[in-house]
Every structure is written in structure tokens, then in C-alpha cells.
Amino acid sequence: MSLGQFLAPVDWADVFLPTQSVLELFVRASAMYFILFVLLRLVLRRHTGGLGTSDLLVVVLVAEIAGNGINGESFSVVGGAISVATVLLWTYGIEWLQYHVPGLERLVREPKLKLIDGGKLLRRNMRAELITFEELMTQLREQGVQDCAEVKAAYVEADGKISILRYENRG
Question: What is the mean pLDDT of residues 83-96?
């Protein structure tokens, strides 16, 4: 890059004016949000660690959209801002709906899955989540449990963490 190109004037219209209509930006961001949401919902559960699927989705989409807005590849700053706002709007809207419409939460959030029932391993459920015996035992030991017989129930939660209910006064 020559010094002349480096000091070239800025085309302010390219920086701030979207090249697509606001409605098109909204529809594109909405479509990508829901496509990725469904795909992540089908594929991810425990692989996201402490993040929920929608949290991971927002981080990825906002980073991608903001990057495009920053480097000017396909969005103006305003276009990028509209797209980011669309993603955040849908995220807030879905969370709001889950809170106000109880049945919707079952569709959007992954239900917990029981891994241990009455001290017995539920191997079919472990297979469904690709959790090995060693992985489960590691999680149990991290929570102070040495043997499955000490566990009344264990669940893999929607965020991928394993929660444990111990027997009371059992020893």
C-alpha cells in the first residue's frame, strides 16, 4: 500500500450508509439467527460448557456481523449495527417469550436428561449424549461422589453441566 492510498479520502457514504434495505438486513439476520439456532439446538448440548445455545449463538453472530461492519467487507457500519440489533432483538424476544409462555420453553431449551436413577447408570441416555462412564465418574468425583450408589439421580442439564442429587443420610 502506497502512502497516497493510505492517506486517500474516506468515502463516508460507504462507511455509514447500508447498501441493502433495512428490511433486507433484518430478514437476513433473522433467517441466519433461526437457522443457526436450530442447528445448534440439534447438535450442541454439553459441548458449549457453561454457555447456553442462545448465548453461544449470539456471541458468534455478533462477532461475525460486527467484523463485517468493521472491515467493510459486506456491511456499512449502520448495516452492521442493524444486523447486530436484529440478533439481539430476537435473543431478547425469545427469552421474553419463554418467560411469559411456559410451553415455549420446552421447544427452545433442551430438557435435562437423567444419567443415574437410584444409583444405577442409564447407559442408553449416556450413549445418547456420548458421555462415557469415565467422563461421568470424573464429574461425580469433582462433586465429592466416589460411587454411583451414592447418587439418587444425576442429570445432564441444558447447559451441559451434570447435576447430582445424593441420597440423604445414606452411608
Answer: 83
What are phi and psi for residue 118, nearest 5 degrees? 60, 35
pTM of the model: 0.52
What pLDDT, on the 0 to 100 scale, is given for residue 46? 47
Fold (topology level) of 113-166 = CRO Repressor (3.30.240)
Q: Three-state DSSP class for 131?
A: coil
- Domain ranges (residues) in the chain: 10-108, 113-166
- 129 closest CA partner among 151, 112, 144: 112
Cα diameter, the chain: 79
Q: What is the DSSP letter of 48?
A: G
DSSP summary character for residue 17:
S
Q: Are strands 113-117 and 162-166 parallel, antiparallel or unpaired?
A: unpaired
Q: Which cell numbers in the block locate residue 37?
A: 439456532
Nearest to 85 by CA among 28, 40, 26: 26
Average confidence (pLDDT) over 128-147: 90
Three cell numbers written together for 95: 427469552
pLDDT > 70 fraction of the chain, expressed in percent and rounded? 81
